[in-house]
Amino acid sequence: MLVTPAVNAELRHAVFGADEPLDAAGRRAAERAGAHAAASLRTHTPAYAAPSVRCRQTADALGLAAEPEAELADWDVGRWRGRGLEELAAAEGEAVRAWLTDPAAAPHGGESLLQLRGRVGVWLDGLTGPAGTAGPAGTAGPAGTAGTAGTAGTETTGDTGDTHRTDSAPAPALTHRVVAVAEPAAVRAAVVHALDLPSAAFWRLDVPPLTRTELTGRAGRWNLRCGIPLTPDP
Asked: Is the model more confident about 33 or about 163?
């Protein structure tokens, strides 16, 4: 289960990677969600949280004893960190267009979309060990591939270098539940990887704050349930 953090000023104003804490409204929302959903979330072990302040604070409010997980960190946008999309579109329009259309582009000097997808995908597939038990989070399978049980390779298609898995014998299913408070970009990348979607589908996904996205199954054969609120509608 992947949970998105509560809202803060960075999310409200579409600022890249400023790593700001939850604002007052976000903290109250996280505490309400914790009061409503903490008991069910605690049935998922182990628990992880991306290293940002907002993810760690959200995990605390949800009552999770979460271990830090760097692979679920926000998209590394290099020199764009701390700047807003509207500002960047005005100052570096061509670079922003390339970033939005080419999954291999990294005009900011950080990660490309392909690299983000690969990073999160390795962590996700690393949750299933070769004997059907959960392996250590964030680890790759034999030969260091993203197919953790050694069953999935990659092939490159199209002009952008987008990659898709080719599965021979799917990895074993998870035998326990895992919960992670992850950055929205990491959740979107996990969905794209899990369903083997074209990387451009990343831009068509929306994961609101304080919602959970459930991936069940195993590496190479994930099922998706997404956008589930942690608290009931008012």
From this structure: 33
Are 152 and 146 in contact, with CB atoms under 8 Å apart?
A: yes
Q: How many separate domains does the chain show?
A: 1
Is the residue at 234 inside a domain? no
Is position 201 within any domain? yes
| Global model pTM greater than 0.85 | no
141, 227 in Cβ contact below 8 A?
no
Query: Which two tokens mark 44?
Result: 């998922």
DSSP classification of residue 230: S
* Integer CA distances (angstroms), 70 to 3, 26, 227, in order: 15, 23, 23
User: What does the pLDDT look like over 36-76, one tens digit per residue?
Assistant: 886 677 666 799 999 999 999 999 999 999 999 999 999 99
183 in Cβ contact with 52 (< 8 Å): yes
Q: Which of 113, 142, 140 is nearest to 125 (CA)?
A: 140
Q: Which residue has the tokens 């690393």?
A: 126
